[in-house]
Specification:
Radius of gyration: 22 Å
Strand order of the largest sheet: 3-2-1-24
Structural class: mainly beta
CATH superfamily of the largest domain: Kelch-type beta propeller
Number of helices: 7
CATH topology of the largest domain: Neuraminidase
Low-confidence stretches: none
Strand content: 35-45%
Length: 364
């Protein structure tokens, strides 16, 4: 039996045909047959469409306490198609994979060494689930995976930050260690351009008082202290939110998310969840959005909630809610909706990050 005519087409011709498809359709075609998968995962084809616009997806981080499946994968939600997807990570020769961050199509994960002859150790791995390429970053101690926050700005700029120290990797063969000198454990640190921003509690054991701190990477290398970022015009912007978190916004903006206190009393209840936006150029705050009352009622009974996302999309999860709340500003106005069918949600408390899926080549 003769092979179908498409098998006789030159490789370059197939590349030109498929290069006209959107990235979402290319991903679907890769699972049609072995020929399509071979053509669409070849280095020549990925180089050809490497500048194609990415898919803006929301990825879930697996809980630390849950049993790691034998077939690891990355669960992501596509807000534009309103559907869940799963990328297999079985090409990674590591155990207990834990995705923590992403940038420019690359995902950063902690993984256990599978070498039975040596002591268990955590490695920070960068990979592209679409091209199934990976690279192991220089070795770190396991304590960094337990206590450090992984911040990524580009494929060659990675930081692992704790209250006392920071590690910085910029594509060389080693990490550079600096003293962070923060007044308390950093909450929800983010890396924007060449600066790190974090919230720190400078209050007392009885009453929290959150402040915004920043430090450029250059200053951190010179062991200089962090600067408290504040203006008289801001007034009580940090006092009106309960348990605030930072989320990286679009461009040179950051988002601060928290429960809107109904009063300034010590154990004040919250009336909703508020999203504030700070323009780092003008240092002016504005309100980006607030959760609708009907949606917030589902979060009121939970003692805490988790926030993740970035750009114009922020997700919220809480115990016993069973689904995610999504704030979407992509259309130029804040829209709120529910995300159902969360895979393996367990107690419902989900963490995650933005995954810009693209066929980015992973440099050695």
């Amino acid at each position: 039996m003769d092979a179908p005519p498409i098998y006789r087409l030159p490789q370059d011709t197939l590349h030109q045909i498929f290069s006209g498809l959107p990235l979402r359709q290319i991903m679907i075609c890769r699972s049609v047959c072995k020929l399509f998968n071979q053509v669409l995962t070849s280095s020549c084809f990925t180089d050809l469409i490497s500048t194609r616009s990415s898919l803006q997806l929301l990825a879930l981080r697996p809980p630390h306490h849950r049993h790691v499946p034998s077939h690891p994968g990355l669960h992501v939600f596509d807000p534009d198609q309103n559907q869940w997807l799963r990328f297999n990570l079985d090409f990674l020769p590591f155990g207990s994979l834990h995705p923590v961050a992403s940038s420019l199509g690359l995902v950063y994960l902690w993984g256990d060494s599978t070498d039975l002859s040596s002591a268990p150790n955590k490695s920070l791995v960068v990979c592209n689930p679409l091209t199934r390429q990976f690279r192991v970053l220089p070795q770190l101690g396991s304590a960094w995976s337990r206590h450090g926050s992984v911040l990524v700005d580009s494929s060659s700029r990675v930081m692992v930050l704790t209250e006392l120290a920071a590690l910085y990797f910029s594509g060389s063969s080693q990490w550079f260690s600096f003293s962070s000198n923060l007044p308390s454990k950093p909450r929800s640190p983010i890396l924007v351009s060449d600066s790190v921003y974090a919230l720190c509690d400078v209050g007392s054991p009885w009453r929290s008082q959150w402040k915004l701190f920043s430090c450029t990477v250059a200053k951190m290398k010179n062991s200089q202290t962090w600067n408290r970022l504040e203006r008289h015009e801001w007034g009580d912007v940090f006092d009106i939110l309960k348990r605030p978190r930072l989320v990286r916004g679009n461009g040179n903006r950051i988002l601060m998310v928290g429960g809107l206190k109904s009063s300034f009393s010590l154990n004040s209840s919250c009336s909703t969840i508020l999203i504030l936006r700070l323009d780092l150029d003008s240092l002016e705050w504005d309100e980006a959005g607030r959760m609708p009352v009907d949606m917030f009622r589902c979060f009121q009974e939970s003692s805490k909630f988790k926030v993740f996302g970035g750009g114009d999309r922020v997700c919220f999860s809480a115990k016993r809610v069973g689904r995610l709340a999504l704030w979407d500003y992509c259309s130029g106005k804040g829209e709120w909706r529910w995300i159902d069918g969360v895979p393996g949600s367990g107690d419902g408390l989900c963490r995650g990050f933005v995954f810009e899926a693209r066929l980015t080549a992973l440099l050695p």
